[in-house]
């Protein structure tokens, strides 16, 4: 296979079908003395159950884009649809995981994971059973009664993901969820994230700075330009699933995708 076969296609080509997330011609301007256009003419579609990562230089508007899709930040022009409905604010269909943990320090892991469902007045017994399963699935058994400061960074991030998964969102938006972790923990959590995704098959939009992480995890990788951010490349990652480090990292295509994306982004 040559690099030309890697199917880096212009972003607009993926726009012809409905998706779980549809962003069309979005412009975002932050007003004020130092007004900036963070995003200009951004369009993308993420299909149901697809895992899509977004890469781009620092300050190109990746977090802004994620917050717009999450309904946390308004956009100025264009259209943002989630499950074919315009985004008007945060929604229970979407879960958001940020780089730093969302957990309340005075609550235990278990109580933190129950909290969102309690606030939404979901049935307590059902939530408790779900949280028990998630604790097991996320390797947190034995730490249910610990407080966040009694966990390692990786465990805190796993528990934060658990908090969101306890609400069963169909769409998961993740903004550098493993950015603050060491490389080894990050690799382990990538494998766990894939396992969870393969079991639950949510639609995922992941913002990351790591080309390796994006290629390992994703069905597609979108590459943004510098600010004002636009989607410049839409690269289909044609690697077999289920993906495990031992059957992916030695695959020559994995290395080729990384080389191709590094070249596009001007990092070698
Ligand atoms: N609340 C805000 N008010 C004003 N400007 C903002 C605000 N948030 C972001 N910006 C600006 O918008 C641009 C895009 O920021 P954003 O955080 O979305 O980029 P990013 O690609 O996520 O950056 P990084 O990779 O460094 O985290 C930057 O120039 C930033 O300074």
Automatic annotation (TrEMBL):
PANTHER family: ALIPHATIC SULFONATES IMPORT ATP-BINDING PROTEIN SSUB, TAURINE IMPORT ATP-BINDING PROTEIN-RELATED. Keywords: ATP-binding, Cell membrane, Membrane, Nucleotide-binding, Transport. SMART domains: AAA. SUPFAM superfamilies: P-loop containing nucleoside triphosphate hydrolases (SSF52540). Coiled coil: none annotated. One of its GO terms (molecular function) is ATP binding. It holds the Pfam family ABC_tran. Belongs to the ABC transporter superfamily. Residues 21-251 form the ABC transporter domain. It comes from Herbaspirillum rhizosphaerae. It comes from the Bacteria. InterPro entries: AAA+_ATPase, ABC_transporter-like_ATP-bd, ABC_transporter-like_CS, ABC_transporter_ATP-bind, P-loop_NTPase. This is ABC transporter ATP-binding protein.
């Amino acid at each position: 296979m040559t690099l030309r076969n890697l199917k880096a296609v212009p972003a607009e080509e993926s726009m012809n079908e409905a998706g779980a997330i549809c962003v069309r011609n979005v412009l975002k301007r932050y007003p004020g003395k130092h007004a900036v256009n963070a995003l200009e003419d951004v369009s993308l579609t993420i299909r149901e159950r697809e895992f899509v990562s977004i890469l781009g230089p620092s300050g190109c508007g990746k977090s802004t884009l994620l917050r717009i899709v999450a309904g946390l930040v308004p956009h100025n022009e264009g259209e943002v649809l989630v499950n074919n409905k315009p985004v008007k604010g945060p929604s229970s269909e979407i879960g958001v995981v940020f780089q730093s943990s969302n957990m309340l320090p005075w609550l235990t892991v278990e109580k933190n994971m129950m909290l969102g469902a309690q606030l939404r007045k979901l049935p307590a017994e059902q939530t408790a059973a779900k949280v028990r399963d998630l604790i097991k699935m996320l390797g947190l058994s034995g730490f249910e009664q610990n407080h966040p400061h009694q966990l390692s960074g990786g465990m805190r991030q796993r528990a934060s993901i658990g908090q969101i998964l306890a609400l069963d969102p169909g769409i998961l938006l993740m903004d550098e969820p493993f950015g603050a972790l060491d490389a080894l923990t990050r690799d382990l959590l990538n494998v766990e994230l894939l396992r969870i995704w393969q079991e639950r098959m949510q639609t995922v939009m992941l913002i990351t700075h790591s080309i390796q992480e994006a290629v390992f995890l994703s069905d597609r990788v979108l590459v943004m330009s510098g600010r004002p951010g636009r989607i410049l490349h839409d690269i289909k990652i044609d690697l077999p699933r289920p993906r495990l480090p031992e059957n992916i990292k030695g695959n020559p295509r994995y290395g080729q995708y990384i080389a191709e994306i590094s070249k596009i982004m001007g990092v070698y």
